[in-house]
C-alpha cells in the first residue's frame, strides 16, 4: 500500500502562510514557532520536488505550481474537516441517514420548508424521501424502511400526531358533459362517466379510496397525471383542494354540483416509527414537521 509523502498538516501550514502573508504571521496563527513553519514547508517542497513559494518583498506568494497544488490540497483539507465533523455527529448520536415516507396529499411547499430548515443542522445526515399514495406510507412503516412517515391512516401498532385535514372537491373541466346537465348531480350521473383515480402505491393492504363503482374507471400511478387528465376534459375526480387552486382560478377545473358528497376530508398523521429509539436527526426532522405545519402556510378554503 502506497503512503503519501506529504501530510495534511504540511498543506495546512502552506495555506496559512499564503493566507496570512508570511511565515511569521502563519506561525502566530498556528501557534507554532517560525522555525517549525519554515521547516515544514521546506520539507514539503523537498518531498515533492517542486517550488511552492517565492518571496515578493516581505510577502510569501505561491508559484504557479504552488497555486495548482494548493487548490487541490484545499479540497483535501475540506474533506478532512468534514470527516471529523461527521465523526463528531456520529459520536453525539446523529444518524448518518433518515428515511421519511410522505403521503402525496401533504403540501409540497410545507415539505420543502421543512427540509430547508432541516438541512443546515444535518449536513452529515442523508435524507431518503419516499413519496407515497394511499397506503404506501403505511407499508414503509410496517416494512421498517423509514424512520418517519406522514400517513392518511395509522396502521395497527403505531401512534401518531394529527397534522392537518385535507379537503377534497369533486371537479371536472367546465366543458365536461356532467356540467352540461345544468342541474344538481346524483351518484347515478357520476357512475355513467369516466372516473379517474390514483393507484395505491402500497401492496400490503391496498385500498380503493373514493371509488363509486363507476362503469368506467381509469387508474393512474401519478397524482400529477390524474390532474392533467381531468384538466384536459378527460373524466372527473375528487382532487385535493390545495393542489388545484390555480386550475380553478384559471377555469381549467370547475366543482361538480353534487347534491351530496361534493366535498370530502382526509386527515394526515405524523408517525415516528420508533419514538424510544429515535436519534437526534429523526427527532429534529419530526419536530420541524410539527412546527412548520402549525406555524406555516394555512390551506385556506376556496369559497369564503
Automatic annotation (TrEMBL):
Coiled coil: none annotated. Keywords: DNA-binding, Transcription, Transcription regulation. Residues 7-63 form the HTH lysR-type domain. One of its GO terms (molecular function) is DNA-binding transcription factor activity. SUPFAM superfamilies: Periplasmic binding protein-like II (SSF53850), Winged helix' DNA-binding domain (SSF46785). It comes from the Bacteria. InterPro entries: LysR_HTH_N, LysR_subst-bd, WH-like_DNA-bd_sf, WH_DNA-bd_sf. Belongs to the LysR transcriptional regulatory family. This is LysR family transcriptional regulator. It comes from Rugamonas aquatica.
Amino acid at each position: 500500500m502506497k503512503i503519501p509523502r506529504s501530510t495534511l498538516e504540511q498543506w495546512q501550514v502552506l495555506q496559512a502562510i499564503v493566507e496570512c502573508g508570511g511565515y511569521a504571521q502563519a506561525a502566530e496563527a498556528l501557534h507554532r514557532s517560525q522555525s517549525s513553519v519554515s521547516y515544514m514547508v521546506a520539507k514539503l517542497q523537498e518531498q515533492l520536488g517542486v517550488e511552492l513559494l517565492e518571496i515578493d518583498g516581505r510577502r510569501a506568494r505561491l508559484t504557479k505550481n504552488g497555486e495548482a497544488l494548493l487548490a487541490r490540497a484545499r479540497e483535501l483539507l475540506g474533506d478532512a474537516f468534514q470527516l471529523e465533523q461527521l465523526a463528531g455527529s456520529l459520536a453525539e448520536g446523529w444518524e448518518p441517514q433518515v428515511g421519511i415516507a410522505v403521503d402525496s396529499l401533504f403540501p409540497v411547499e410545507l415539505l420543502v420548508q421543512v427540509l430547508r430548515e432541516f438541512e443546515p443542522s444535518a449536513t452529515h445526515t442523508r435524507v431518503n424521501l419516499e413519496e407515497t399514495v394511499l397506503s404506501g406510507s403505511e407499508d414503509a412503516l410496517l416494512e421498517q424502511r423509514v424512520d418517519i412517515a406522514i400517513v392518511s391512516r395509522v396502521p395497527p401498532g403505531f401512534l401518531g400526531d394529527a397534522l392537518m385535514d385535507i379537503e377534497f372537491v369533486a371537479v371536472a373541466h367546465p366543458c365536461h358533459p356532467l356540467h352540461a346537465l345544468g342541474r344538481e348531480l346524483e351518484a347515478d350521473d357520476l357512475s355513467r362517466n369516466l372516473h379517474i383515480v390514483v393507484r395505491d402505491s402500497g401492496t400490503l393492504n391496498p385500498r380503493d379510496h373514493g371509488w363509486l363503482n363507476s362503469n368506467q374507471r381509469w387508474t393512474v400511478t401519478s397524482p400529477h397525471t390524474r390532474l392533467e387528465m381531468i384538466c384536459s376534459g378527460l373524466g372527473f375526480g375528487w382532487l385535493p383542494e390545495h393542489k388545484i387552486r390555480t386550475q380553478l382560478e384559471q377555469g381549467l377545473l370547475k366543482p361538480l354540483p353534487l347534491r351530496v358528497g361534493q366535498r370530502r376530508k382526509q386527515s394526515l398523521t405524523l408517525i415516528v416509527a420508533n419514538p424510544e429509539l429515535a436519534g437526534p436527526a429523526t427527532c429534529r426532522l419530526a419536530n420541524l414537521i410539527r412546527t412548520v405545519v402549525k406555524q406555516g402556510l394555512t390551506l385556506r378554503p376556496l369559497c369564503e
